[in-house]
Each structure stands twice: as C-alpha cells, then as structure tokens.
Amino acid sequence: MLQYLKNSATKSVIELSLAKDGLKAFHADIIGLNTTWTNLQTINLEHNSIGAEGATILSRNTTWTNLQNLNLGSNSIGAEGVLSVSNNITWATIQTLDLGCNLIDDKGAASLSENTTWTNLQTLILNYNKISDEGATELSRNTTWTNLETLNLGGKKIHDEGAASLKKNQKWLKDIKIDYLCIR
C-alpha cells in the first residue's frame, strides 16, 4: 500500500486514513514526499508511531494546500514534532487539528501559540498531553485563531489559572474542554 502511495500520481486523493497501521517515521517520509495530492483534505494517522521525526517530515510537505483535517493523535511527536507542525505555512486551510496524546509539554504549547497561518482553525485537540497552566496561558496569547471554537485540553494538568487565561484571551472560543469540564 505505501509503495502505491509513494508512486501514486493521482490528484484525486481527498482522504488518507492510515490510523492504527503501525506506521513509523519511515512511512511518514513516504507519505510526506508525495507531491501530487493537491486535493487532499483529510489525513488521519492517529495511533501510530511516527514520532517527532515523522511529524517533521510531514510538515515539510508544501503540496497539501487544501488540507482541512489533520489527525496525528497518539504518535509521540512531543515538543519537537509540534514545533515542526506549527511552522508549516502551507496548511492555511486547516480546520481541525488533533494532536492529543503526544507528549506535548508547555514548550510545545508555546510553539503552537506562535502559529500565524491557521486562520481557519476551528477545533484544536490537545488532550492528554503534558500541558499545564503555563502552556494554556501561552496558547491563550495566539491572536490568529479567531475561528477557533473548540479547544480540548483534557488531562488533569490545567487548573483555574490556565482556564481563566484561555477564557479571558480567547473570547471567540465556544468550548474549552479541560478534564471533562466544559467552560462556555
């Protein structure tokens, strides 16, 4: 299947779902090097093992200009991988980004908060990472994500200080999910 993907010249690929397929950074390399999927809108690679290296490789792709949904949840990408993802300037149409369960810490949250490309981002999933009040405060400083409606930070690391920063600075947010609590 991956050999086919590597050599596929079709532009008609709209969705790529390879969740729970045991993918490693090597496989992300094959996927990330594709330059023909100009219509790609959804990538689901959740529950694999691409790590920071795989996230970095995928982030270098400049072909996926129509990407709307990216699910890299449970891939252990950490702060290094999220830095690469947040630096991608091609994915301006991204609407949903799932980075849950990825060992992302406050440094990674700070990297995300510096993104100025994702003006269409509506849902950001960061649950079950290592983000604390400090990281939540960093995320609250982003002024680009004015379409962000849902931010999921569940995972027992964020308390009143972080939640208050988000609510105060991200007025357009409709839902902030922290541990099973919803702030509306």
Task: Briefly characterize the structure.
This protein is an alpha/beta fold.
The residue fraction in helices comes out at: 25-40%
Overall mean pLDDT stands at 90
Principal-axis shape: globular
User: CATH topology, what is it called?
Assistant: Leucine-rich repeat, LRR (right-handed beta-alpha superhelix)
What are the segments in which pLDDT stays under 50 over at least 5 consecutive residues?
180-184
CATH class: Alpha Beta
Count of individual beta strands: 8
- Give the ordered list of helices and strands: HEHEHEHEHEHEHEE
Strand order of the largest sheet: 1-2-3-4-5-6-7-8
**Structural class by helix and strand composition:** alpha/beta
Biggest sheet architecture:
8 strands, mixed
- Radius of gyration, taken over Cα atoms and rounded to an integer in Å: 16 Å
Fourth-level CATH superfamily: Ribonuclease Inhibitor
**What CATH architecture would you give?**
Alpha-Beta Horseshoe
Amino- and carboxy-terminal Cα gap: 44 Å
Describe this structure in words.
With 184 residues, the chain is of the alpha/beta class. It has one domain: Ribonuclease Inhibitor (Leucine-rich repeat, LRR (right-handed beta-alpha superhelix), Alpha-Beta Horseshoe), CATH 3.80.10. The chain contains 7 helices and 8 strands. The protein has helices spanning 2-7, 25-32, 51-59, 78-86, 106-113, 133-140, 160-169; strands spanning 15-17, 42-44, 69-71, 96-98, 123-125, 150-152, 175-178, 181-183. Strands 1-2-3-4-5-6-7-8 form an 8-stranded mixed sheet, covered by helices on one side. α2 links the parallel β1 (15-17) and β2 (42-44). The longest helix is centred in the C-terminal third of the chain and has 10 residues, at 160-169. The protein is globular and about 50 Å long. Residues 180-184 have low confidence and may be disordered.
